[in-house]
Amino acid sequence: MHNNQMGATPSQSSQPLVGLKILVRTWRSKFPLASFITSRLVTMLVVLFVFGWALFGLMALAPGDIVDQMMQQQLMSQTESKGGSNRDNVLSEEQMAKMRSELGLDKPFTIQYFRWLERVVIHHDLGVSLISKAPVSFLIKSRIVNSLVLNIISLVFITVFSFLLGVYFSSKAGTRVDVAATFFALFFHAFPGILLLILLQLFASITGLFPVTAYPDFPLSENPIKFIFSYNYHVFLPLFASFLGGIGGTMRMIRSTMLDQMGMPYIMALRSRGISERRVYLNHAFRNTLNPYITGSANLLASLFSGSLVLEIIFSYPGIGRLSYDAVMQQDVNLVLACTMLIAALDLIGITISDILLAVVDPRIRYGKEG
User: Fold this and answer.
1) Is-contact 142 133, C-beta < 8 A?
2) 280 with 270: CB under 8 angstroms?
3) How far is residue 111's CA from residue 233's CA, in Å, rounded to a whole number?
C-alpha cells in the first residue's frame, strides 16, 4: 500500500516527454518545410517579445516621460493663446504624480510591458495615443498603407532593373561599359542616402520642377485618377533616391553571381552540346542567381523600411516611419511600441518568406531529414 501511494515512478513520469519527442521527430521527418515554418514563427514571436521588452527599457531610460511632454504642450498652448507665460492652470506635482499612476508610468518598465502585452494579446487593443488621444490602430492603419506602397514600388523597380543590368553587364565583363557601370554602382552604393535625399530636395526647391513634399495635398477619395498622377509626381524624387541607393549593391551581386555561374563546368558542358548562349544565360545561369538574391532580399526589405524613415521625415511623407519618429520624440509609449513592433514583425516575416522561397526555387534545399 505504501509503495502504491508514493505516486508514479521516474520512468512513468518521463513517458509523456518521450512521446512528445517522438511526435516532434516524426513531424519534422514527415513535414520538414511545415516544421521549419512553425519553428521560425515561434522564433519570431520570441524575438518580438525580447525586442518589445528591450524597447520598453530604452523608453524608460530616456529623460522625462509622456506627462512631461503633455505639460510642455500645455505651457506652449497657454503662452501662444495669452501672449505670455501663465502658470495658473499648470499641473502641480501631485497632479502629475496622479497622472503617472493612472497611466501606469510609476511601475517598473517590465510590469508596464506585461500590462501592454495583456491588453494587446488578450483584449486585441493597441491602446490610445497618449498625445493625440486617437486609437493607435487607427493611426497605424492610416499610415501603414502609404509605407507599404512606397517600399513595394521601390523593391519592384530595384529588383527588375538589378536583374536586367546585372545580367547584361555580366555579358560585357571587362569592357569599358562594364567598368563604367561598376564605378557608378559603387559610387551610389557608398553615397550617404540621407545626403542624397537632401540634395534632391534642394534640387526640387531651386528648380521648381518637382515638389519638395512626397505626398499630394488632397485625399484619394476626392479625385482618384488625379490623385494617382499627383502621387507619382510627388514620389518620383524620393523613389529615385531609393532606387540609386539600392540598385548598386544588388546589381553588383547579380553580376558577380552570373560571372561565377558562367565559369562553372556545367556551363561549359552546355556550350559543348551546342546550346545557344541566350538559353545558357537565361535558362541555366540566371536561375542559379535567384538563390543569393532571395537570401539578400529580406535584408533589402528591412533596409528599405529603415531608409524610408529618413525619406518620410525629409520629404514629409505620411508613413509609418514618420509616425514612429514623432511618437519617439513625444515619448508616446503606446504608439512607439505598436509602430516599432509592426516594422520589426514585417522584417522578420520578410526573412521567413525568403527562406521559404529558397526551398521552393531550389529543390536541393531541405529543412529536415528525409523520413
Assistant:
1) no
2) yes
3) 48
